[in-house]
Amino acid sequence: KLFFTDYGNAAKVERCDMDGMNRTWIVDSKIEQPTALALDLINKYVYWLDIYLESVEVVDYQGRRRQTITKGRQIRHLCGLAVFENYLYTVNSDNLSILRIHRYNGTDVQALARLDNAKEIRVFQKRTQAAVRSHACELDPSGMPGGCSHICLLSSSHKARTCRCRTGFILGSDGRSCK
Known about the structure:
With 179 residues, the protein is an all-beta fold. It has strands spanning 2-6, 12-16, 24-27, 34-40, 45-50, 55-60, 67-71, 78-84, 87-92, 97-102, 109-114, 151-154, 161-164.
């Protein structure tokens, strides 16, 4: 799945398949400017910053069990969001610091370090990497991902895929080759 935020005409947090199909709103009320998003892949939670409502919130992948982690004026200066173990990590663009927020007790906020000009943050750790299993976009015997001549996108499951073409090409009737 692909998770993303939108604060155009109607602010929301959404998810869809990797090929863009099955687009679903998971948060569409009491939300104004969701600017950063992070996933807890193990427990299947979506965290986001809303800089207009000055809050950090969480829901499960279906948009249920919504909770506010923390609220306050300091939220309007946050950008980027990552989750690891019991903490959320974010960047305060006002004073250029990395913040750690306890995700079960939002009052426990600590500044960890200062940076020059960060706008995003990611946690790279072996335990946060999902195990790779066989999937529909693996290289076929001729070296094409999922048998697609240009682009292979996972669809509704790891066993389904959609072929797409680079700009200037159209998908052939076989659903795999681009012309």
